[in-house]
Amino acid sequence: MRESLAGADSWTLWDIANRKEESVTVTQQPAAVRAGLGGSATINCRTSQNVYGSNRLAWYQQKDGQTPHLLFYYVGSRVSGTPNRFNDGGSNSDFTLTISGVQAEDAAVYYCQSFHVISSQYVFTQ
């Protein structure tokens, strides 16, 4: 069973107002997670700057051949339809996504996306 994610990434924040790149990185670890059926899997996401409001971090799931599907839009804010076996946590710059009771259908790529206010501008990871 596989739960992979975008490994060792340095993502660029794009300042939508000034069209200026900011030096903020988002790193997800580990690059791949193995979990047996019914087991648990945890993915970590770290940002080099604190996210806005300490909790503005979203998690997405992307299955093969499909577009990304939003699981959580803020920490603790589950999207309707996200199974209860998925839980997120963390604050400021360190976050986790945990799957408890892994099912075969959970095999996917998982992404975190953060939101920041830098120099009075709104910026999102891409």
Automatic annotation (TrEMBL):
<dbReference type="InterPro" id="IPR013783">
    <property type="entry name" value="Ig-like_fold"/>
</dbReference>
<dbReference type="InterPro" id="IPR036179">
    <property type="entry name" value="Ig-like_dom_sf"/>
</dbReference>
<protein>
    <recommendedName>
        <fullName>Ig-like domain-containing protein</fullName>
    </recommendedName>
</protein>
<dbReference type="InterPro" id="IPR007110">
    <property type="entry name" value="Ig-like_dom"/>
</dbReference>
<dbReference type="InterPro" id="IPR003599">
    <property type="entry name" value="Ig_sub"/>
</dbReference>
<feature type="domain" description="Ig-like">
    <location>
        <begin position="22"/>
        <end position="126"/>
    </location>
</feature>
<dbReference type="Pfam" id="PF07686">
    <property type="entry name" value="V-set"/>
</dbReference>
<dbReference type="InterPro" id="IPR050150">
    <property type="entry name" value="IgV_Light_Chain"/>
</dbReference>
<dbReference type="InterPro" id="IPR013106">
    <property type="entry name" value="Ig_V-set"/>
</dbReference>
